[in-house]
Amino acid sequence: MASGAIFGLALIGAGLLMMTLATPLTNAAANTQAYFRPNLDKPAFKRRNLKVLRVIFGAWIVLGIVVALVAWISGP
Fold first, then answer.
1. Which of 46, 55, 56, 73 is most buried per CB count within 10 Å?
2. How confident is the model at residue 4 (pLDDT cuts 50, 70, 90)?
3. d(CA 8, CA 65)
């Protein structure tokens, strides 16, 4: 298997892993911010940051698919 395909599959795996960890990471960030800013709107903070993280990790998955497909099409 070409190294590009392995890299693409690694990007897909990392994106999926981080997509599942996005919610706990966002909750931890909201709790940390709420400690320093008592008037923080935690639900809005969580929604906004969760959306940002999902877009970033979704881009990792799409990029991984593209890299893997290009590596498989181009051959060894």
1. 46
2. confident
3. 6
Read off the pLDDT of residues 11-36 as tens digits, 9 standing for 90 and up. Answer: 999 999 999 999 999 999 999 999 99
Quick one: 18 exposed, middle or buried, by C-beta within 10 A (0-12, 13-18, 19+)?
A: middle
Report the distance separating Cα 29 and Cα 48, nearest Å: 12
**Does residue 1 have a pLDDT over 90?**
no
Q: How many domains does the chain have?
A: 1
The DSSP string of 18-72 is HHHHHHHHHHHHHHHHHHH-TT--HHHHHHHHHHHHHHHHHHHHHHHHHHHHHHH
Quote the domain boundaries for residue 53.
3-74
Q: Which residue has the tokens 């999926």?
A: 16
